[in-house]
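REQUEST ID: PR-0412
SUBMITTED BY: lab tech R.K.
PRIORITY: routine
TASK: structure prediction, single protein chain
INPUT:
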Amino acid sequence: MTNLKTCNDKKQSALELCSQVLLIELDGLKILEKALHGPLKKPIEDAANLMLNTKGRVIVSGMGKSGLIARKIAATLASTGQPSLFIHPGEASHGDLGMVTEDDTLLLLSNSGETKELNDIMHYAARYHIPFIGISSKKGSTLDKLSTVGIALPEVPEACPMGLAPTTSTTLMVALCDALAVTLLTWRGFTNKNFKKFHPGGKLGAQLLKVDEKMHKTNLPLVHEDTLMSECLLAMTSGGFGCVGVLDNQKNLIGIVTDGDLRRHMGSDLLAHKASTVMTKKPKTIEKSLLMAEALNIMETHIITALFVVENKKPIGLLHIHDFLRLGVA
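STATUS: complete
OUTPUT:
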């Protein structure tokens, strides 16, 4: 087990000290993972099933640093399909207990397990038979003993050299709560489609849009494979995408002509060539039902700036790297 033994050793660089802290917390996470296969096996299963079968919401609460974790976990649960909210234990004693119903499950977090601000919430839960999960770092604490499901994290050294500032213990608490949240979304079959519903804004929401929601559908730059390059250049220029798609007699997309293709075939006779002799064959394409994130990955992986959308080999749309820039995701 790695330890920090002093808090005023200026001989150690920031890199050394930060590395030691991470190693201490990593050791703690390894101990927690091992405990999942031992003393925490049943309470973890019980807690996950209790949350899964909750008819109402998972109400998360905690004080101090545990309260900050509680806010984060409530947000994570809510955004991944489990209705959830955070209530401050102090405010709970002054009216916010009215937010808690008999259909809810409480998730109470406390490092010591003796946080007095949680007492009113626990008494309220007992009075109205509301189940609650208690996560603490002290086996046998008040929270641990009174909880419907008590989860006592294993004892681990704090990364703080004085052992006072919650560091490793808070890392374990947030990691375990994250693990429960991911367990629930996995059990529920939570998908990208569900995720998009709860994240409509910002960069994440943009990446979760489907291709057909953002692709260009009209005035696509397309030419027949026998079209002369003089006409192809006009199509490329008028389209404004820096490329033109090449079709066969069945109107299937068989190639693409880009600025790069023009440079590779530059010569005095370029304009006399047919599109089929200049084009890049079997261009990268995407289907309209896929996500914008997947389209961006194709473009980044193959270093291309335009991507045709096809259906049964026929082009029905086009995406350009500028579309992603406008969305703020490229």
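NOTES: DSSP finds 15 helices and twelve strands in the chain.
REVIEWED BY: pending
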